Amino acid sequence: MQIWLIPAYILLILTGVFLLYLAFKTEDRRYIYLAVAFYVIFPVLITLKLPIDISPEARQLYDAVESLPDSSTVLLTFDYYPSTVAETEPMSRAALRHLFGKDCRVLTLTTVPLGGPSIAERVTREIAKEFGKVYGVDYANLGFKYNYVAVLKGMGNSIEAIYPADNSGTPLSEIPMMADIKNYNDIDFIFLVSDNGVVDYWISIVNAQYGIRVGSGVTAVMAPKFYAYIGSGQMTGLLGGMKGAAEYELLVHKPDTAVKGMTAQSLVHLFIILSVIAGNIVFLSGKRRRKRGAA
Amino acid sequence: MNLVDFLQIWIIAFFTLSLFSFLYRDNPFYKLAEHIFAGLSAGYYVGLIWHSIILQQMINPMFDNGKWYLVFPGLLGVLMFSRFFKKYHWISRISLAFVMGNTAGIFLLSELHGKVLPQMQSTMNSLVPGRGVGGYILGLIVVVGVLSTLLYFYFSREHKGLLGGTAKVGIWFIMVSFGAHFGYTVMARISLLIGRVQFLINDWCGSIIGLFS
Amino acid sequence: MIVAFFFNPERSFVGGLESEVLSWVTIVGGFTLLLGVVSLVRVNYSAVKRKSEDWIFKLATLISVFVMAIPAILPKNVSSLFGRDVGSIYDWLFNYVDAPMMSTMFAMLAFYIASAAFRAFRARNAEATLLLVTATLVMLWRVPMGEIALKSIHANLPYLINTYIMNGANLAVQRGIIIGAALGAAAMSLRIMLGIERTYMGK
């Protein structure tokens, strides 16, 4: 680590503390906004390389995918809106790198109408180019169909009944890899990347009724809920938020945006903890003073 | 960097900074960005539904594969628009009933089979012997936590006596879970900001630096 | 749907019937997304017509809807700018205007949550204190700097947080909520099927 980083980060922390003091004094929340902006911008400019521990849940997902025979068929979902790409797109990229690296055939789809199909198209084509993968032979994008409950249930019988054509309008019968992928029986693993409640239905409809293993990467807001599914064995592995994405990037040996974002994440978390503690100290000391005054 | 890429980055940066300007105070740039965002999102749905549903699932199968019966779901879909006419809005209930009935039928069994039974099974298995002291303590935490949480949300009886005591334990468990949720939520929100700042610093500022280098 | 659950779809006619019904549902449901668009256009059009407050911004909304929608519906064999493929106006507007704005809208929440943490999160009683302590531990555990700090107190502290907080208390509560919500959803489905529940029809 470069030695000049230490005084730079100390100065940054002191700036944040000073802005917090100003926020207390003037009761103007814009000082808090300024402090948060500082703590995000500075580490993006000057990144600190920090050790990132791999959680057991991320390791479980990685091992599940790693244990798949090469040239397995994996269904990768892009069930997220553009609003959460900072957390979820790194997961999709790392997952695609892992799957393409193992020569798995990747079938992508989305149950999110606003942006899901476009994101799936952009990300898969970009990563497929890195590995020299061919559309229609190594991967295909089914796009979006409305009513995810009907879609999840319908694909159990026939994928073509729900998706007669792929996202670009090419009939499935004209896509080579779809010749032997008819329904869930022909899929070896489902890798969900999601920012909404559709994960529950993948578990309760697809995993419960068809027995296919499901692993997922979700936003940090949703992650605590799915520990229940990990515990019951209904979900094989879980990535939670940007930290989860960073863990998977390290596991596939391709650190990217999520790993780079961890320094900023650390600083802002520490700042928020400091604000909560400082706010409570002021609150409790004020409460004590009022009690003494009343007595 | 070519001119097209440069302009694209600047357009994204303009709208990003317009939206961020609201943090200082409301202003016309923010309002413009917000309204354009609403319009483009609505327009996106039109293109998506036209291609994914109307063309791929109705018109092409009807004309290419002779599936003329698909005019019926199309008709049901069009009937939805009767909601905009006060006199005829009741017609849309036919389409709604079709969708709701289908979803209710799937949910009735999938919720019980896919969520209730596996979760109950896993809870009961938590106290299976042979997991060591640590495993047994964890199993006890899970069983007590699940039961006390379920009893806390049982409001058909007043929380007194044994029920009240168990509900109190449930509250403590719920506070721990909500605390974990809060921690994760803070992480989620910060991550989204980091994503935007990474674009502004790496791509937008990078394009400015590229002009002078 | 209920009957089909108990049949093997590959060995009975029920499977084919179920597939057809489900594809019909996706078609009918797709039209409901357009309801929102029509409603938005109607509201903004009447506001522009009446020249109400901020009508110029509502005009921008209307123009945006048509600029996005019309090129998307035009046939792509006329021009590569039409349709939804990569390189079309639709794709460009989504990737370079709409999606970044959506990301930015949610990114602003970071500032609000920091402000809320500063102003509102107070340990007013024992339960709130427990919530805040847990939140602090989890916030530290989820970031590298925090993990280093926790390990400096005790090497196993991150493992204990993961095991007893996330996979212990949190798992138990989430399981209870999942069971309760699932039972509620199943009961609601039964009520809809029996005709007792009609709120979805507007009654």
Characteristics:
heterotrimer, A: 295 residues, alpha/beta, Rossmann fold, 6-stranded parallel β-sheet, 11 helices, B: 213 residues, mainly alpha, 6 helices, 80% helix
Describe this structure in words.
The complex is a heterotrimer of chains A (about 300), B (about 210) and C (about 200). Chain A is an alpha/beta fold and about 300 residues long. Chain A has helices spanning about 5-25, 30-45, 55-65, 85-100, 115-130, 150-155, 160, 200-210, 225-230, 240-250, 255-295, and strands at about 75-80, 105-110, 140-145, 190-195, 215-220, 240. In chain A, strands 3-2-1-4-5-6 form a six-stranded parallel β-sheet, sandwiched between helices. The longest helix of chain B is centred in the last third of the chain and has 52 residues, at about 160-210. Chain B has a domain at about 125-215. The termini of chain B are close together. Chain C folds into three domains: about 1-75; about 75-110, no CATH class; about 120-200, no CATH class. Chain C has helices spanning about 1-5, 15-50, 55-75, 90-105, 110-120, 125-140, 145-155, 155-195. In chain C, helix 2 (about 15-50) runs antiparallel to helix 3, helix 3 (about 55-75) packs across helix 4 and helix 6 packs across helix 8. In chain C, about 45% of the residues are buried.
